[in-house]
Write a structure and sequence with these properties.
It contains eight helices and nine strands. The chain folds into two domains: about 60 residues, Orthogonal Bundle (Arc Repressor Mutant, subunit A); about 120 residues, no CATH class. Strands 6-7-9-8 form a four-stranded mixed beta sheet. The chain has a three-stranded antiparallel beta sheet with strand order 1-3-2. It is elongated and about 65 Å long.
């Protein structure tokens, strides 16, 4: 089967609106050939380029017109293309856990790659480099908890913070957070140890 037909078949089988990176179809041919094929499919309207190296099969809505994938879906496709790890930023994680009421002005994500800004349609998103210590279990609830606490920093993390987190999670999710204590900085782990110690004392 010709390379263009293989790429087209891949695109046809994709759910409408799901982004993918050039890396997903790289095995069908040479990088130069794949680049030309994807550009041709963009020209014919079969694909839309939402960011460099990231494409989507257009999704139309009678009310909203063309619907683009979410920034999170796009950055995950970018991550697949570059090999980096990308996850939600601590500010957004803190908001989801009800640890802050502030809504980030700009979509931001933590990345193991270089800090940079990327345009998705008419939206600008920011990828901020963080060290591996802040990328524990990316894409999971426990990873989001640790990211949120890193964002809040030592001075703003207390027993009340841990209690608020526990109220947002089910028992299994909170237990999974406790399993990552050994990957937390001492000031963060201390708050979980204190919480567990109080729990033991109450049940005596």
């Amino acid at each position: 089967m010709k390379t263009i037909n293989q790429v087209k078949k891949y695109v046809e089988e994709l759910p409408t609106g799901q982004p993918f990176s050039a890396a997903n179809v790289q095995h069908f041919g040479s990088p130069e050939n794949i680049r030309k094929i994807l550009s041709r499919l963009v020209e014919t309207g079969e694909l839309k380029r939402v960011s460099r190296g990231v494409f989507v099969k257009p999704k139309k809505s009678a009310y909203l017109g063309e619907v683009l994938p979410s920034p999170y879906e796009v950055v995950q496709a970018i991550a697949k293309n570059t090999g980096e790890t990308v996850t939600i930023h601590g500010a957004e994680a803190a908001r989801r856990l009800h640890l802050t009421t502030q809504v980030p002005m700009q979509a931001m994500f933590n990345t193991s790659g270089l800090s940079r800004k990327i345009r998705i349609g008419n939206r600008m998103i920011k990828l901020q480099h963080v060290g591996s210590r802040k990328l524990v279990a990316p894409g999971t609830t426990r990873g989001n908890v640790i990211s949120a606490l890193w964002y809040l920093e030592k001075e703003k993390v207390s027993q009340k913070t841990i209690q608020t987190i526990k109220q947002q999670l089910n028992e299994e999710e909170f237990s999974s957070v406790l399993q990552e204590i050994h990957k937390m900085p001492a000031w963060m782990a201390k708050q979980f140890y204190l919480h567990q110690h109080k729990k033991v004392r109450r049940h005596r």
